[in-house]
User: Fold this.
Amino acid sequence: MANHKDAIKRIRQTEKRRLHNRYYAKNMRNEVKKFRALTSKSEAEGQLSKLYSIIDKVAKRGIIHKNKAANLKSKLSHFTAKLA
Assistant:
């Protein structure tokens, strides 16, 4: 256990941030899963911009790396293009 007040505070802050980041990361992953379950191209195109927004926000907050966000968006656009 930490002995200094600032170390104790740092532990509290880290745990709070970890839970916050986990919530947003899980939310993003769930949205991606829902999107990949779509079968209609028109529906997928309609939801693509919403999903892009979620991914960009998570990347902006530093929860995921910007390159991971770019890779995800690229894969999702390829997925949408393949739908018939």
Q: What stands out?
A: The chain is about 80% helix and 0% strand.
